[in-house]
């Protein structure tokens, strides 16, 4: 994520696959940006990670389609 922020400056609706403690997969959407100090150096990052049912549902369909699993 740091390399993407360095290249682009901001992440907007970046979809990311995450694992829960039980091993199940969820898809999240991330928004983040670098916060700079007075000199222009990156001081820290701020952002939000959210799980969208629409994103997760679409990803499940995509994964099923890639694996040839019919509903």
Provide the fold topology:
Layout: H1 2-8, E1 10-19, E2 25-36, E3 42-51, H2 53-67
Antiparallel strand pairs: 1-2, 2-3
Structural commentary:
The chain is 31% helix and 45% strand. It is of the alpha+beta class and 71 residues long. The chain has a single domain (2-67), classed as PAS domain (Beta-Lactamase), CATH 3.30.450. Strands 1-2-3 form a 3-stranded antiparallel beta sheet. The longest helix has 15 residues, at 53-67. It starts with a helix and ends with a helix. The mean pLDDT is 76.
* Architecture per CATH nomenclature, i.e. the level-2 architecture: 2-Layer Sandwich
How many distinct helices? 2
Please mark out the parts with pLDDT under 50 across 5 or more consecutive residues, or reply none. Answer: none
Measured by DSSP, the beta-strand proportion falls in over 45%
Distance between the termini: 34 Å
Shape: elongated
Radius of gyration: 16 Å
> How would you name the oligomeric state of the polypeptide chains in this document?
single chain
CATH superfamily: PAS domain
Could you report the average pLDDT, rounded to the nearest whole number? 76
What structural class do the secondary elements suggest? Answer: alpha+beta
Name of the CATH first level: Alpha Beta
Provide tags for this entry.
alpha+beta, three-stranded antiparallel beta sheet, 71 residues, Beta-Lactamase, elongated, single chain
Compact overview of the structure:
Helix content is 31%, strand content 45%.
């Amino acid at each position: 994520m740091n390399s993407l922020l360095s290249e682009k400056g901001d992440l907007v609706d970046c979809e990311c696959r995450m694992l829960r403690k039980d091993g199940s997969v969820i898809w999240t959407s991330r928004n983040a940006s670098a916060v700079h100090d007075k000199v222009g150096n990156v001081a820290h990052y701020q952002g939000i990670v959210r799980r969208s049912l629409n994103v997760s549902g679409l990803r499940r369909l995509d994964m099923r389609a890639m694996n040839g699993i019919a509903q």
